[in-house]
Write a structure and sequence with these properties.
Order of helices and strands: HHHEEEHEHEE
Number of strands: 6
Shape: globular
Strand content: 15-25%
Helix content: 40-55%
Largest sheet: 6 strands, mixed
Structural class: alpha+beta
Number of helices: 5
Strand order of the largest sheet: 3-2-1-4-6-5
Distance between the termini: 52 Å
Length: 149
């Protein structure tokens, strides 16, 4: 019995180690997410917010993302964020709007289906290369939206 248990533990450790090495060699290290987020932010890619949501564990790989910033109010997946998170994301959105030279009175919408780590980690993916559509809102301000992926 002890021998079987030892064999199972060794087998599990080998499989787990192989998966870790495979993920690291494919560049799927979670430590890369903040670097990717900053790069996307600096490049004006509004999907940076999706990476922030992944970093903060507000969503998981494979989830859909519906993020809306409208006149300082934020909803994620149709719900308000907790106060501390809302403040963090409002601050980040204000930084993004200032960088783009856009008033924070605008609207910002991100709708991405099935956010996979491959989309996030691949520099050539449409997610990482996304541009936004800019229109003037009826009530003033700018409306930014990402294309569907």
């Amino acid at each position: 019995m002890k021998r079987i248990l030892t064999s199972l533990i060794v087998a599990f450790m080998l499989v787990f180690s192989a998966q870790q090495l495979s993920a690291q060699s494919a560049g799927m290290s979670p430590q890369r997410l903040p670097l990717i987020e900053h790069e996307m932010f600096d490049n004006g890619n509004m999907n940076f917010i999706v990476v922030d949501l992944l970093i903060d564990n507000l969503m998981q790989p494979g989830d859909n993302c519906q993020f809306l910033y409208k006149k300082g109010k934020i909803t994620f997946q149709g719900k308000k964020l907790p106060a501390n998170m809302e403040q963090k994301y409002q601050s980040r959105m204000n930084e993004f709007f200032a960088k783009k030279g856009i008033t924070s009175e605008g609207m910002y919408a991100v709708n991405v289906e099935n956010v996979t780590m491959n989309k996030v980690l691949d520099p050539a993916s449409s997610f990482r290369k996304a541009t936004q559509n800019t229109t003037q809102g009826k009530e003033g301000g700018t409306i930014l939206t990402t294309p569907k992926f």
